[in-house]
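Write out this protein's structure.
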Amino acid sequence: QQRIQATEQWLAQANEQHYSIQVMQTTVDKTQNLADLLHQPEIIPLLADLYIYHVTEKEHVFWEVMYAEFANADNAVAAIATLPHILQRNKPFLRKIASLRQRQEK
């Protein structure tokens, strides 16, 4: 719940031309799995920079997890290589902050 509130505040003030890294998407029925992931030892140091929000696509509701904010794509791509394996296995990718706002507004 704290991360959801932090995400709302972050998205409200983030530069829409900046980037973030989507590290995960899961259905809301797997909320407990997401909570378990957030308590993994390799994830705990990243918590302050993890942002969580839900989106609806084709009548399905998902949690999406984003990592940090980067002023440019090069910095974001470089950061992907530093992510723990538990997040890298999900094939993280870049998203512009503007697109995150649009997804949330749906």
